DNA sequence: ATTTATTTTTTACGCGCGTAAAGTTTTAAT
DNA sequence: ATTAAAACTTTACGCGCGTAAAAAATAAAT
């Protein structure tokens, strides 16, 4: 590392013997200068502690090297994990990730978009809240900034969408549950905030019809992002009332399932595949915590890594193309069955 | 909201009839201009869509209105939650929070500090990794930027520290466990990454001595931040070997406890207070997920809100003072006993 | 060695705003 | 009404870098 402090690029040009415009090119893209000069610059950087002023750089550039990442809820390990993956991909391309969480609030989501706009980002990766989102303003934003939506869509906003194939994944777990026991009822939120929830509901209905079984929806009341709480509360009601046509429950997502399992445990109902178990519960997403539930949660995994990679790649492609694409690319990843103890 | 787009402050000065220097003052601090002019400006903002260029603003200011927040691991809901609280407090003061996660990596932590330095932040709130942190570089950073450490300390770096009173909180739960049954053994990581872990170990030893009980440490091997995994693996071994002097386990943190409970469940051991239970397990932190474990986890809560508020306040005080304080303020919050099903 | 293409240097201007200084207007106080 | 203080306007300069254009230097190709 360097020792002597350098004030600005002018000064660094003086001590390194490289002209300032060339240095400017180098700092914007090291590969844009001749290899020999690049080495000279890097050698100088070893002797002198200099990094260009971020604000001066971005003031004149129409587009910065910032990439915004917005997720609906950072306290949900699912999103934290996927955000982490995306961050890593972005860093690998020499861009600078800026992570923002919307805390489940549509106002915060818009606020985040506004703040990002001030950063003049090269592009944005957005996982919208879903139903609660201000679709119109998101659409406006997407027209101004290259944006890839992931996890959930918001209308047809965005130049690309990366998500999971709910038809396939829900079909997979319904198939599995039917093969290994009773057909499942579907446990979900009555008015889910996430558009994936609707897709999963329909996928469940379709899968049950395909298999010639009567579908059964259990719809929990409740708003917001406290899914475990909702799963627990309504799960308690479900196991108390005991008027289910089936003892196999497929939850719309793992967080609901975590709450449901907790409710079943409290009610003294054994969940799982053993002889003495009276109920089976499955989830969806392979949430980081689902391998530590009691019993461990059988679920369908979303391919976090693939979604993160593809989202980042799609955005980089957009940025490099430098123009709005002629068509909106949609990528859906298949889920993988994760057989654990609960079903 | 405004409709007409304004390019820069000069233009906005023209249409609003306010001089540019006054506008500059206003945008830096709305309360620094006369109430009547403030109203005129705000009225103009309603008609015209203008926000000052972030980069131009910060270029000349020696200190920006940015406040950096660094947590060791964003995928841990504990840190996600505390970060969210801090963000809210920062926003309330008119500053702009910038959240960064270190992904459990000391290199990333230093990288985050370096990146923050480029942002010329008014101050930084840092929850260091702990033992793995590059203490020297953190110390250097703290001398250059007003910094409040929270959750964990790093030597005596930072102008203030806000954390929890491990002596009190561990003493509290040890007391409780002893009053209601057997004295607990202490389940922890052998080489914990977090300095709190050492404090808790000592607090446990002290509490047991005070109560005239023989302490017993169960030290799990393992590195990194996959605490549930480590708790599960070593928990499995512990319940298999069954050579414990006690059937009450106090875990150094809730994430270890979550893994441990899962292990106990898998081993068919009932945990809790009921007649048919052969083991009690308690944790520490009141992790967001600990109310959904099976059984629900008895633990000591850390006062997230208080830690977040005090950290933010301490930093704002530092910033407003505008100088290094004569003494390093240390604030420790007491824990609250959270009695649930597991002990 | 000559030509040509590529890269670097020199020179110069501008981005949008912070901010200092001096002059003017408004407000508050007597 | 007079005076002093506070707030505002005018004018002007600078921050650190992007970037365009023309000239010079270097490298590659014949």
UniProtKB/TrEMBL annotation, chains A, B:
The keyword Transcription applies. PROSITE patterns: HTH_CROC1 (PS50943), HTH_LACI_2 (PS50932). Residues 9-51 form the HTH cro/C1-type domain. Keywords: DNA-binding, Transcription, Transcription regulation. The keyword Nucleotide-binding does not apply. Residues 7-61 form the HTH lacI-type domain. InterPro entries: Cro/C1-type_HTH, HTH_LacI, LacI/GalR-like_sensor, Lambda_DNA-bd_dom_sf, Peripla_BP_I. This is LacI family transcriptional regulator. It comes from Leisingera daeponensis.
């Amino acid at each position: 590392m360097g020792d002597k402090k350098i004030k600005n690029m002018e000064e660094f040009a003086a001590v390194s013997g490289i002209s300032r415009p060339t240095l400017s090119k180098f700092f914007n893209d090291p590969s844009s200068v001749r290899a020999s000069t690049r080495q000279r610059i890097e050698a100088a950087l070893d002797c002198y502690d200099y990094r260009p002023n971020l604000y001066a750089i971005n003031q004149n550039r129409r587009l910065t090297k910032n990439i915004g990442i917005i997720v609906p809820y950072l306290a949900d390990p699912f999103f934290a994990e996927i955000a982490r993956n995306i961050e890593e991909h972005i860093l690998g391309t020499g861009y600078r990730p800026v992570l923002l969480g919307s805390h489940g609030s549509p106002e915060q989501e818009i606020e985040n978009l506004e703040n990002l706009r001030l950063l003049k980002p090269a592009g944005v990766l957005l996982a919208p809240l879903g139903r609660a989102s201000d679709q119109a303003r998101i659409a406006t934003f997407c027209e101004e900034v290259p944006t890839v939506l992931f996890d959930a869509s918001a209308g047809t906003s965005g130049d690309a969408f990366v998500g999971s194939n709910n038809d396939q994944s829900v079909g997979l777990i319904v198939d599995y549950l039917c093969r290994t026991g009773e057909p499942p009822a579907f446990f979900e939120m009555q008015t889910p905030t996430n558009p994936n929830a609707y897709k999963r509901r329909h996928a469940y209905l379709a899968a049950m019809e395909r298999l010639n079984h009567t579908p059964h929806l259990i719809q929990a009341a409740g708003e917001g992002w406290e899914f475990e709480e909702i799963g627990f509360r309504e799960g308690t009601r479900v196991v108390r009332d005991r008027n289910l046509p089936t003892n196999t429950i497929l939850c719309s997502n793992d967080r609901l399932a975590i709450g449901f399992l907790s409710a079943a445990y409290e009610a003294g109902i054994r969940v799982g595949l053993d002889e003495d178990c009276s109920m089976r519960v499955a989830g969806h997403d392979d949430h980081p915590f689902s391998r530590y539930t009691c019993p461990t949660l059988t679920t369908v995994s979303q391919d976090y890594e693939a979604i993160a990679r593809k989202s980042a790649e799609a955005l980089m492609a957009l940025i490099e193309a430098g123009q709005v694409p002629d068509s909106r690319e949609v990528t859906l990843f298949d889920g993988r069955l994760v057989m654990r103890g609960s079903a």
